[in-house]
């Protein structure tokens, strides 16, 4: 894509975003391969040196993604005071995702291993603007929890549903089927990095979506469940086996992500794109276009271990 087309794509993405959200988003929102303006010395044929402004590709990290937080979807600290509630039913160290979310201002309120009561969950969500569910191999949520989550989602708050290879999608499917009419199945070995998608339905990351801001390459996860597509979901990431790893729901002012590769949250974290993707996901699910600054949040970064 030439520089002029890239600039037009960036402008179109920003025009599609209300001004209230643009204040939270970086100038590169929706651009996979950002370009920057720089002043460089140019020597003419007579040896005279002048400073000229040029447009060039942003510096890249070792995986080929633009280097630096300035190329994330949201500016650092944009969501200060807002909270992500996490239901974590598969054991791994959540500190790296927590640190990434903190860069954008999010605090984390986490229920680890055991499900809270529906009343406790409702109390936490009343002070949060999004919910992340990391599924385990057996159901921990019941109809009471589902009622609370559905109410939260229908009010426009973001929900990220994480599963992984069979059987680690029990609660993911329970919630996804109820909210999105969707589910995940199977067990594929991935452990590869995919680039930007070249053809529909084939391996790669969706181009020019807010979630893929600053990303040209992304690690798919080591083991993966496959999302079963339906008309309500938009594909986001296809894995190396052309399997649908992640898809998004964005209708009627509501947002959700369904993902079959939660191993990305802890396995090879420093591989292509994971940290930026996590930050972009939280910024997008915050749905600032709908809520503006009127989002209640827990103060402080507290982990609730039950």
Can you offer a commentary on this structure?
Helix content is 24%, strand content 27%. It has 306 residues and is α/β, with parallel strands linked by helices. It starts with a helix and ends with a strand. The chain has helices at 3-15, 19-22, 95-103, 118-125, 143-154, 170-180, 274-285, 288-291; strands at residues 35-43, 49-57, 83-88, 107-112, 130-134, 158-162, 183-189, 193-195, 204-205, 217-219, 223-228, 234-238, 244-251, 254-259, 303-305. It has two domains: 3-69, no CATH class; 75-305, Class I glutamine amidotransferase (GATase) domain (Rossmann fold, 3-Layer(aba) Sandwich), CATH 3.40.50.880. The model is unreliable at 3-15 and 295-306 (pLDDT under 50). It is built from eight helices and 15 strands.
Under the CATH scheme, which class of the largest domain?
A: Alpha Beta
Supply the CATH superfamily name of the largest domain: Class I glutamine amidotransferase (GATase) domain
Order of helices and strands: HHEEEHEHEHEHEEEEEEEEHHE
Number of helix segments? 8
Largest sheet data: 9 strands, mixed
Report the end-to-end length measured between terminal Cα atoms. Answer: 50 Å
What can be said about this structure in brief?
Helix content is 24%, strand content 27%.
Task: Tell me the layout of helices and strands.
Blueprint: H1 3-15, H2 19-22, E1 35-43, E2 49-57, E3 83-88, H3 95-103, E4 107-112, H4 118-125, E5 130-134, H5 143-154, E6 158-162, H6 170-180, E7 183-189, E8 193-195, E9 204-205, E10 217-219, E11 223-228, E12 234-238, E13 244-251, E14 254-259, H7 274-285, H8 288-291, E15 303-305
């Amino acid at each position: 894509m030439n520089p002029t087309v890239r600039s037009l794509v960036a402008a179109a993405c920003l025009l599609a975003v209300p001004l209230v959200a643009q204040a939270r988003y970086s100038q590169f929102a929706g651009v996979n391969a950002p370009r920057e303006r720089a002043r460089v010395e140019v020597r003419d044929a007579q040896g005279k040196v002048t400073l000229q402004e040029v447009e060039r590709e942003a510096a890249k990290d070792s995986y080929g993604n633009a280097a630096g937080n300035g190329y994330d979807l949201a500016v650092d600290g944009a969501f200060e005071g807002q909270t992500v509630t996490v239901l974590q039913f598969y054991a791994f160290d959540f500190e790296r995702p927590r640190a990434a979310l903190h860069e954008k201002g999010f605090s984390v309120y986490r229920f680890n291993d055991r499900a809270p009561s529906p009343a406790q969950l409702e109390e936490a969500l009343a002070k949060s603007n999004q919910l992340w569910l990391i599924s385990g191999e057996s159901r921990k949520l019941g109809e009471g929890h589902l009622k609370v989550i559905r109410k939260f989602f229908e009010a426009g708050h973001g929900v990220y549903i994480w599963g992984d290879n069979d059987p680690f999608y029990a609660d993911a499917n329970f919630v996804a089927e109820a909210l999105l009419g969707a589910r995940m199945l199977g067990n594929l070995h991935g452990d590869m990095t995919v680039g930007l998608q070249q053809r529909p339905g084939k391996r790669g990351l969706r181009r020019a979506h807010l979630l893929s801001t600053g990303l040209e390459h992304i690690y798919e996860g080591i083991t993966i469940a496959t999302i079963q597509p339906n008309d309500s979901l938009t594909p986001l990431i296809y894995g190396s086996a052309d399997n649908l790893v992640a898809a998004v729901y964005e209708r009627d002012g509501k947002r959700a992500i369904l993902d079959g590769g939660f191993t990305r949250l802890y396995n090879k974290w420093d591989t292509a794109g994971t940290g930026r993707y996590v930050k972009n996901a939280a910024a997008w699910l915050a749905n600032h276009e709908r809520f503006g600054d009127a989002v209640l949040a827990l103060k402080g970064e507290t982990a609730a271990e039950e």
